[in-house]
Amino acid sequence: xxxxxxxxxxxxxxxxxxxxxxxxxxxxxxxxxxxxxxxxxxxxxxxxxxxxxxxxxxxxxxxxxxxxxxxxxxxxxxxxxxxxxxxxxxxxxxxxxxxxxxxxxxxxxxxxxxxxxxxxxxxxxxxxxxxxxxxxxxxxxxxxxxxxxxxxxxxxxxxxxxxxxxxxxxxxxxxxxxxxxxxxxxxxxxxxxxxxxxxxxxxxxxxxxxxxxxxxxxxxxxxxxxxxxxxxxxxxxxxxxxxxxxxxxxxxxxxxxxx
Length: 259
Ligand SMILES: Nc1ncnc2c1ncn2[C@@H]1O[C@H](COP(=O)(O)OP(=O)(O)O)[C@@H](O)[C@H]1O
Ligand SMILES: CC(C)(COP(=O)(O)O)[C@@H](O)C(=O)NCCC(=O)O
Ligand SMILES: [K+]
Known about the structure:
alpha/beta; Nucleotidyltransferase, domain 5; globular; binds ligand PAZ; coenzyme a biosynthesis; ATPase_NBD
């Protein structure tokens, strides 16, 4: 069984995992901010040892310059590896893409939906990926990506207030507040942004009639405590590290090792 390198290049961070096609075949993982992307070569060198992967499956929504940079690094650390730049299509790994133009759907969202389907087969699911943007997508019990929402992520929401107002400061992400009705500016911003994120997820969950809500992404740890208090989501909330990567792994498992 040969190893695959999976890459999820989002707008803030590049995440990767080294896997094989077994269900529990998660061998190593790592991440770097775009500014520190050069660190990936060292991370990969350590993870690969003397056996670089022969196949790479990469989802990139961070633009062509990032893709070119990754191609150069991959050529150095895994020379000769076959690289597939994952793109949204009408159907893949048992998931049907309901976007009017399937290729327009962010490939990270399609991969996340494939991951959600793999984790909750035959169930109506909402998958919220809380990264630079927050995406909240609906997958039905028959395995169709129905559609979804895109909103500014938690960090973007907060920083847009700081950038576009005279009096509001840049806040740091923080823990759940005891009350949504804050008595100071920093907490009022945090309460507003967290409530907007959690509220959109709850609303999508209710509207879709979902039975499971998968929460992922770098901002998920801040949003999860608020969702955990939502009666609507009782017993239905599941925090999954990097659902995009889980989806790419599901594709590798579904399609197997080419001979
Ligand atoms: N150490 C960190 N560095 C950067 N962002 C972080 C960090 N910890 C949490 N975050 C939050 O996670 C978001 C990035 O999450 P991630 O899922 O990696 O996004 P993307 O897939 O868009 O690159 C940031 O916008 C921020 O809200
Ligand atoms: C919505 C996104 C910006 C999310 O990116 P991320 O927050 O993961 O960096 C990305 O999925 C994207 O560029 N989508 C293309 C448009 C669409 O999905 O309709
Ligand atoms: K996202």
